[in-house]
Design brief:
Shape: globular
Oligomer: single chain
Number of strands: 2
Radius of gyration: 15 Å
CATH topology: Cytochrome Bc1 Complex, Chain D, domain 2
Number of helices: 4
CATH superfamily: Cytochrome c-like domain
Structural class: mainly alpha
CATH class: Mainly Alpha
Strand order of the largest sheet: 1-2
C-alpha cells in the first residue's frame, strides 16, 4: 500500500512539473518550441498530427491567449508567456489543429 501511494504521488508531481506555470520561454523560442516544451506532455498530437479540434468561435489567437493567461480547470495559467509569445504559440496551435464547423 505504501509503495502504491508513493508511486501515485510521484506520478502526480511529475505531471504537474510537465505543466509548470513557471515555464518561461526565451526570446528565441518559436510557437512550435513553446508547444513542445510547455504543452506537448498534456496536449499530444493525434494520429493525424493534430493538436486540438477548435470550434469556429474558439479558433482564434485571442481565445488561445486567454487560455494561456488564465488557465482552465486542469491547465495552469502561464504568466511568463508574454503577449507576443502567446500570439506565436496560438498561431502554431491553429496551424496544427482542426476546426469544427
Amino acid at each position: 500500500m505504501k509503495i502504491t501511494s508513493l508511486l501515485t504521488v510521484s506520478v502526480v508531481l511529475l505531471s504537474l512539473n510537465a505543466c509548470s506555470k513557471d515555464y518561461s520561454p526565451s526570446e528565441k523560442d518559436t510557437g512550435e518550441s513553446m508547444y513542445q516544451t510547455a504543452c506537448a506532455n498534456c496536449h499530444k498530437k493525434d494520429e493525424k498530427g493534430l493538436i486540438f479540434t477548435f470550434t469556429k468561435e474558439n479558433a482564434n489567437t485571442a481565445y488561445i491567449k486567454k487560455r494561456i493567461a488564465e488557465g482552465s480547470m486542469k491547465m495552469p495559467k502561464f504568466p511568463n508567456i508574454n503577449a507576443q509569445q502567446a500570439e506565436e504559440l496560438g498561431a502554431y496551435l491553429l496551424e496544427n489543429s482542426a476546426i469544427n464547423n
